[in-house]
């Protein structure tokens, strides 16, 4: 018999005062209750209950065992309640991986609002452009850019992550404003360096695709470095529109080639909230993903 079941049967017999009372409480037969307690006594090798035709009482060993097992099962029940609450309440440790630039520029400044709404969450945050194994690293939610190669991941699209070519007013005044994508070969184009990225920028307009090999004196894996360099007048950069919208509005950067859709890769440039599949999405992960969706809307 199940060890947990026979221990619970024993406790009910003691607390209800008889096998019949315990059987009525559990909607079971008296024979079943007696069989379970006998099984427990056989397993322990000691008698727990003194039985007569009129009454029953705990043996000395039974008194010791009853005190110990009730405490143990009480702790077990409490542990189950505590764990179950994680599927009901938004709380606990939430491990999140964010892309460096979009994380620093857009998500991190909004985190106080999320943490104020969910004060029982402890956020563990990593900013990296590297795609790590979420399961191996215990990551609950990650923000990735581009198409997903791993079918074991689930994703929620956050933003199309449109790209724009931009430079400072001073740079454009000195070097001129490109009118066509092919004009970029005459410009200092700063390049983002990462997997699936190259120095070929792709432009689309009315279904026509133009690929332009660009070059410049700065190659970096930091989007922030590209933005800062562009604002300082170092050259042109192909950047996520959401990251430079405010700089363009302030006049620090000017968008060029506005009639074209631009991309540094041939893959899907969209931004996704990603989480491991094959397990139920926890309330804390769902709350963070909903927060991201709302933020990018």
Helix content: 25-40%
Question: What is the gyration radius calculated from CA atoms?
Answer: 32 Å
Mean pLDDT: 85
CATH topology of the largest domain: D-Maltodextrin-Binding Protein, domain 2
Helical segment tally? Answer: 10
Largest sheet: 5 strands, mixed
Strand-residue fraction?
A: 15-25%
**Termini Cα gap:** 56 Å
The assigned CATH architecture of the largest domain is 3-Layer(aba) Sandwich
CATH class of the largest domain: Alpha Beta
Shape: rod-shaped
Uncertain regions: pLDDT < 50 for 5+ in a row?
none
Going by helix content, strand content and strand pairing, the class is alpha/beta
What's the count of strands?
Answer: 15
Widest sheet: strand ordering: 4-3-5-15-6
| Series of H and E elements | HHHEEHEHHEEEEHEEEEHEHEEEH
Domains, number = 3
What are its keywords?
297 residues, alpha/beta, Arc Repressor Mutant, subunit A, D-Maltodextrin-Binding Protein, domain 2, 3 domains, five-stranded mixed sheet
Overview of the structural elements:
- There is one protein chain.
- Helices cover 39% and strands 24% of the residues.
- The chain has 10 helices and 15 strands.
- It has helices spanning 3-16, 19-26, 30-44, 60-84, 100-107, 111-117, 169-175, 223-231, 241-249, 283-296; strands at 49-51, 56-58, 92-98, 121-127, 141-145, 153-159, 163-167, 189-192, 200-205, 208-213, 219-220, 236-240, 254-256, 261-263, 271-276.
- The strands form 4 sheets. It has a 5-stranded mixed β-sheet.
- Strand 9 and strand 10 form a beta hairpin.
- Helix 1 (3-16) crosses helix 2, helix 1 (3-16) crosses helix 4 and helix 2 (19-26) packs across helix 3.
- It starts with a helix and ends with a helix.
- The model has no long low-confidence stretch (mean pLDDT 85).
